[in-house]
């Protein structure tokens, strides 16, 4: 049984007929071939059209680099029927081609290495005076539970119960369909495009190694770091991967 879908990626729209009993992983493979087929409807913008148009799936969006959204992040192991996809459903896709990611990540990786080298020369972050004044408040009562020795995907709800550098409560919301990170406090919510964040650094909190202190670099210098304290350790790698776009290709 086929279902008609409208796949939307990078301002392009693709009308697709796909089997209801196919899985999310199989849909990602289809999206890979669709986004590489520049000679069809929903082709790349005119500015990219140089020379003859050919079908080339290698130019498309690899499955490992896709965030596919249908009422949340599309599960790879379930079928479209199981997640109740219906005719005319809109499938949102966020992601960049390998060439785009490499072009963006090269300076990010260099910046991250420089930051790590500089950090090695300093005392642990959690002992520095600017951080002690927050950490000495102790662990927030409503902080989310931590799980040692486990790496988990980002939860579907915001990460909450943490402190920022002024000691106020802060929550992190990952809007994957918009490729944004929302940093919310009692006063306001700042909506940041993932690509605008230069780097993410983190360090376990001494005596509470199941929680980390983490900073998002919003500008060219350390003065632009937005610090968040008491991040559950199981989400640290997922946060870095989501923000910095470090995908596994193989």
TrEMBL record:
Single GO MF descriptor: RNA binding
Gene3D superfamilies, A to Z: Phosphatidylinositol 3-kinase Catalytic Subunit, Chain A, domain 1 (3.10.20.90)
SMART domains per UniProt: UBQ
PROSITE patterns: UBIQUITIN_2 (PS50053)
Cited InterPro entries: UBFD1, UBFD1_C, Ubiquitin-like_dom, Ubiquitin-like_domsf
Record's protein name: UBFD1 protein
Stretches assigned to the Ubiquitin-like domain: 3-94
A Pfam family reported for this protein in Swiss-Prot or TrEMBL: PH_UBFD1_C
